[in-house]
Structure formats: structure tokens, C-alpha cells
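Hi R.,

Here's the input for the shikimate-3-phosphate complex you asked about:
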Amino acid sequence: MKFITGSNSPEQNSLVGDIRVSGDKSISHRSIMFGSLADGKTEIKGFLEGEDALATLAAFRAMGVNIEGPENGHVIVHGVGMNGLKAPKEALYLGNSGTSMRLLAGLLAGQNFSVTLTGDSSLSSRPMGRVADPLRLMGADIETAEQGRPPITLNGGASLKGIDYDLPMASAQVKSCVLLAGMYAEGETSTTEPAPTRDHTERMLAGMGYSLSRDGACTRLTGGGQLKAATIDIPADISSAAFFMVAASIVPDSDLILRHVGLNPTRTGVIQILELMGANISLSNEHLVGGEPVADIRIQYAPLVGIDIPERLVPLAIDEFPVLFIAAACATGTTVLTGAEELRVKESDRIQAMVDGLVALGIEAKGTTDGAIIKGGCLGAGHEQVDVQSHDDHRIAMAFAVASLRSSSKIVIHECDNVATSFPNFASLARSVGFQLIVEA
Ligand code: S3P
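And here is the predicted structure with shikimate-3-phosphate in place:
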């Protein structure tokens, strides 16, 4: 599937609207996982019906969990308890979803059945040694393909022991994997992270009655606990909202309201970075929903300036860099990103994919080992059409759709099918606020 954008010379119309983007992907995954392991019936509202979260849902169905829905974001999970999962008949296929694979590896390492986890070609090239290594330290019997790539096979019946694990990289997936294995391990398990990463696992486990303690970078829990069913109201995904935040910031006279967005402080780096660049963002109706902060975000056009992005904000905005690169390309001056080598092992090498697309659009951009240097300029100048590859990466595809709002050329964005992994109604919502975007099979 391709996105074909309009050419926006001389001026793109302003973006105006009041919208709610789809549900948070990270929280959607966890709601199915923990709902399945809880005792009782968990009701979920606002579930993201994207392919990644649906892959998690299908995996738990394949392990014997009765799950009703999803229907308009409404899901009912009939939990089977911590030890109620059954061996799936086949390998669990997790599509494009790194979160499903890494968290499931932790949850399934201590079961009494064997299971194999597989994925699509992008997922099959992503590093899983980062979860296999700590799981082996805990006593898991785990196999991966060469260089720690998927598929992952977890051989059942291993008895796990708690460990104290210092994470070698800032990764919520690795942290969650170890903590989830820890629920099935003898004794105490702790994780210590080098920088704060999203803490939805910790919040949801605690909200469902699993006792854990948190002290700065260290989280601890003891194996053998139980989860209680809950009602889970999933906010809109700030990572999806980010495309609209940048879009409104770069198109003159824009004024967008994004409703009920999750504002967990481990996820709000994108707001802080855009504000440092001069963006005009205001929050209203701030409140807590199921232990997660939520608010409406209003974002109005404001001229952006290039900045050196503070490294402490990098893990707090890790999924938002593709679209932040577009903000940088539309800013006055130069933006420098460092400390972001993790971007090279996401659904694509996001540094390379973004730099290549920006260069094709005539922007001076250079990748570095751990980031990029981007000089603001005129997108698409001198071209009628520019072709950009998204490398099957949803966030690269959506980022270049945002770039088109300031491009004087038409942009054809290739390999956009995977937008459905995190934001299935992106194109229609984007058109509803003023994007010129055609989807072609
Ligand atoms: C996620 C964690 C992040 C993020 C991914 C979702 C999660 O990955 O990039 O989209 O739900 O835990 P890392 O923890 O590997 O950085």
C-alpha cells in the first residue's frame, strides 16, 4: 500500500479539528496479557484494534483464554489465573510486534509447556538476545536463531530463580520481560534501568493487585503472586497523537485539539522536545484514569527552531523521533540528536530511513552512530514528485505523510501497510483535519 500526498505549493490549508486518536498500543498489549492471567473478568475500553495488539490478543486466545471482542475498542477477557494458560497448538505468530515477542518471552519462560514465538521479516531481524540473556540467567531454557534473532523457543518446565538485573539499555520491553518472568520465579526479582522508560507494566501490575516496590530506577517483585481482574480504560496513544502535534505545529494557522491522550510522564518527551523547539501546546482537563494521567492537548501553529535535543528526553520520546525529524526539517536552524542508538533497532533502522527520505526531499540531514544532524530547509523544492521508502515501518510512513504538509512536491510513500499495526485509521483521521492523502493499494 502507498500513501500519495498532495503537493502543497504555494500554501497548505491550515489543519483544524477536534479528534481522538486510537488507543495506546503499550497499554493495549498489557491489558490483554494481565487480564488473561488475572482471576476473573477484565473489561477493557479504548483497546487499540491495530495489528500489533491484535497479535497479542490472538496469542492468548491460542493459549486457551476466552476473549470477547474487540468491538469498538471494547474487549472482555475471561482471565484464567497465573497458571491457567494452555500449550498453543502451533507457534505463536506475532507479526510486526516487538512488544508482544519480548513481553511474552518473559511471561512464558516459566510455564510448564513449550512454545515458539515467530514474527514477520522486520521482527525476525530484531535483537532478542536482550531478553534471552536475562531469562537464561533466571534459568530459562530458551533458544533463538543465529545472533539472537527470532524465532524464540521457550522449552517448558524450567524452574526460574529471581535475579537482580541491571539493564544494559533503556528498554521498557526488556524491563517488562524480566519482571514478568519474575512473577513465575522463586524469590525476588529486581530490574534497574539506566534511564526512565515507560512504566505501564509497573502501573498495571500494581493496579491489578500484584505487589511491587519501586525505588528510583529499581523495581522489585516477588514470584508467586496473583492478579485481580479490573476495568481498564485505555487512553489515546501519545505516540499516535505526536503525528498531529507536529502537523499542527508546522502548518500556519493550524489549531487542533487531541482528546483524552495518555500523558504518563515516561512518555511525554515529545511534548517537552516540541516545546523546547517553540511549539504552542496547552493541556486541559487533566485527570487520572486507571492510574494513568490523561488530558486533552491543544496544539496551535508556531514557528519552530532547531535545538540540541537533551539526551535525558530520548527514552521518553523514543517512538516519536521519526516525526520529530520532520519537525526539525521544518525548523529554522539545526537540530542535533544524540544518545538515540536504539532507533537503529526499531521496526526499521529509523535513523537511516528518516535521513534517506529527508535527503530525497532536499533537506541537509546526516545520520550519526547514535542520532542525526538535521538542518531545517524547504522540503521537496524543485521536484514535482519525491518517492520515499518507509521500509515497512508504520512510523516512518506516517512521519512522511506529515512532511507532505510542508512539501512543495507531491510525496509518494511506499510500503505503508504496517500503519495498521499501530494506527489503523490514520489516513481517514488525517484527511478529516485537512491532510491531502490518497491511499493506493
Ligand atoms: C514499548 C517499548 C519501547 C517502544 C515500543 C513499545 C513497550 O520499546 O519503542 O514501541 O510497550 O514496552 P523499547 O522498550 O525496546 O525501547
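One thing worth noting: The two ends are 4 Å apart (CA to CA).

Cheers,
M.
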